[in-house]
Specification:
291 residues; alpha/beta; 14 helices; 8% strand; globular
């Protein structure tokens, strides 16, 4: 059954106390007074930046806290919609994938830009974390966008369950990221019963899907180039990065690869794909040769 850990009221209590003081002190108060109530959640966020050699305090002071006041209304809307939507979508996913037992801890919090949603482990449970600050920044607070985001993250959880790797951390690297994000995007569509793209709203313009489709071969070539150069592929996935002004194109690209692989393989079998690099790379190369 879904369990929801909702920390939003504690954030509002913290914010009322700290909103008018210097940002550096806001950040320290966030860590000590607000996140201090959930030290495992705090540590999870800090580690996400140390893993990529970033200082979490610098990110918080420069990219997150200067904008919190202006995003309060969006965070409030997102919070209300998450409370309303999580359980029905969790149950819908169980129905669509014919899963009888599916325990997930859903966490609603205000963080330091780690992601609008991410699958991880917390309190000895498979957990999905929803960062209200990033949902507001991505402009996904509305019900339609949030349905897509929730379904996407549940897709990650289903993938982890099917692989018997609940946090999907068995492997690392760009091929694994393209594979897991593409799989989650495909699950998002299956759960919702239609091809919705929450990435195509908010930060992106309305022609995002059309642009990605028209530039699929270019995106494939660019991804392969970055991998070959051992360069960062965050331009394909991060909300703070873009490719020719379009963000999160990696979700589209990964989905297309998964969809093509699904032509000869059941979606459940694709969840336990063994040679991820070989399978994904061959499809990307076909996009270039056919482009």
């Amino acid at each position: 059954m879904p369990i929801i850990l909702d920390t939003y009221s504690e954030f509002l209590s913290y914010w009322e106390k700290y909103k008018n003081i210097p940002i550096r002190e806001q950040v320290e108060g966030w860590a000590c007074e607000y996140m201090g109530m959930w030290p495992d959640l705090l540590e999870k966020q800090q580690e996400s930046y140390s893993d990529i050699s970033e200082d979490w305090r610098n990110i918080a002071e420069e990219r997150v806290f200067p904008f919190l006041h202006g995003r309060l209304n969006s965070m409030q809307e997102a919070h209300a919609n998450l409370i309303e939507l999580i359980k029905p979508l969790h149950n819908l996913a169980m129905e669509k994938f014919k899963i009888n037992e599916f325990d997930v801890l859903y966490v609603i919090y205000v963080g330091i830009g780690c992601g609008a949603g991410w699958l991880t482990g917390l309190r000895n449970s498979q957990a999905i974390l929803f960062g209200l600050e990033m949902i507001a920044e991505c402009r996904w607070a509305g019900s339609d966008s949030l349905k897509g985001l929730i379904a996407h993250e549940i897709g990650h959880a289903i993938h982890g369950r099917l692989r018997q790797d609940p946090e999907l951390n068995q492997e690392k690297g760009p091929w694994w990221q393209l594979y897991t994000e593409g799989y989650a995007q495909r699950c998002e569509h299956i759960i919702m019963g239609r091809n919705i793209w929450h990435e195509g709203s908010g930060l992106n313009t309305s022609d995002w899907l059309e642009w990605c489709t028209e530039n699929k071969s270019m995106l494939a070539e660019r991804f392969l180039q970055l991998v070959e150069e051992e360069a960062d592929v965050r331009p394909f996935f991060g909300s703070w990065y873009d490719i020719q002004g379009y963000r999160q194109c990696g979700y589209y690209l990964g989905h297309e690869v998964i969809l093509d692989l699904e032509q000869g393989c059941d979606i459940r079998k694709l969840a336990v794909l063994e040679d991820v690099k070989l399978a994904m790379k061959s499809v990307l190369e076909s996009y270039i040769s056919n482009g």
